[in-house]
Structure formats: structure tokens, C-alpha cells
Amino acid sequence: MHGFCHIEIPTTDPKKSSEFYSKLFGWKMDTGMGDYVQFSTPDNEGGGFTTTSKPVTDGVVLYIMVEDIEKKLSEIETNGGHMVKTKTGISEEFGFYALFTDPCGNIMGLWSKK
């Protein structure tokens, strides 16, 4: 009952952020609120892109679950993001992670069991 219910990702360009996350992760966008774009993930988690905060490179990191970190990092680079940390093992039990920045400069993470 006390899990996250909404996440806001800062952006300097809601259209660019919407296109990036929609294309790479399959998030659905609702652009009916002007500069504020709401999104929902395939698992129905949701949030929005806000222009009232600046993109962050130091602070809380959100991790997106993917099947293939290396493939997704390549797609990120092709679509305007940048790899910050390559695929790195956590442990056999907890899998792998990597870090990237999105086109607006937010640092984000990827996670995969394999």
C-alpha cells in the first residue's frame, strides 16, 4: 500500500522526452495537459515529464527493467541518450545494472537479471 504511485521526471523538452521513452521502453503518453506529459509503463506504473524542475545527474536514480542491457544501451545512444556506466554485475542473485543519461540530461538506470 505504501509503494510509489507517481514519478515525475524533469525535462527541458516534453516532446523529446516523450518520444525517447516511448520509442525505447514502450511507455504510453498522454499529451493532453499542455507542457506536462503523463506516461504509463507497460506495467501500468505512471508518472509525468515536468518542466518545473531541472534534469538531475546527482540524486535519486530510477531504474528501468529491461531484458538486454547491452542492446538497450546501444538503442539509447542511437536515440540521443548517453551511456554513463556499462553493464555491471551486482551479484548472481541481483543481476546487472547500467547507467545512462536521457536526451535532457537526467541520469537513469537499467536493470536486468541476465
How would you sum up this structure, described in words?
With 114 residues, the chain is α/β, with parallel strands linked by helices. It has one domain: 2,3-Dihydroxybiphenyl 1,2-Dioxygenase, domain 1. The chain contains 2 helices and 8 strands. The strands form 2 sheets. It has a 4-stranded mixed sheet, with helices on one face. Strand 3 (36-40) and strand 4 (46-50) form a beta hairpin. The chain is globular. The model has no long low-confidence stretch (mean pLDDT 95).
Specify the structural class: alpha/beta
Number of domains as seen in the coordinates:
1
Low-confidence runs: none
As a percent range, the share of strand residues is 35-45%
CATH class: Alpha Beta
Any idea what the shape is?
globular
The CATH architecture comes to Roll
Mean pLDDT figure: 95
C-alpha Rg (nearest Å): 14 Å
Please give the count of helices. 2
The strand order across the widest sheet is 1-4-3-2
Relative helix content: 10-25%
Assembly state (oligomeric): single chain
CATH topology: 2,3-Dihydroxybiphenyl 1,2-Dioxygenase, domain 1
Number of strands: 8
Element-by-element helix/strand order: EHEEEEHEEE
> How does the major sheet shape up?
4 strands, mixed
Fourth CATH level, the homologous superfamily: 2,3-Dihydroxybiphenyl 1,2-Dioxygenase, domain 1
Terminal residue distance:
29 Å
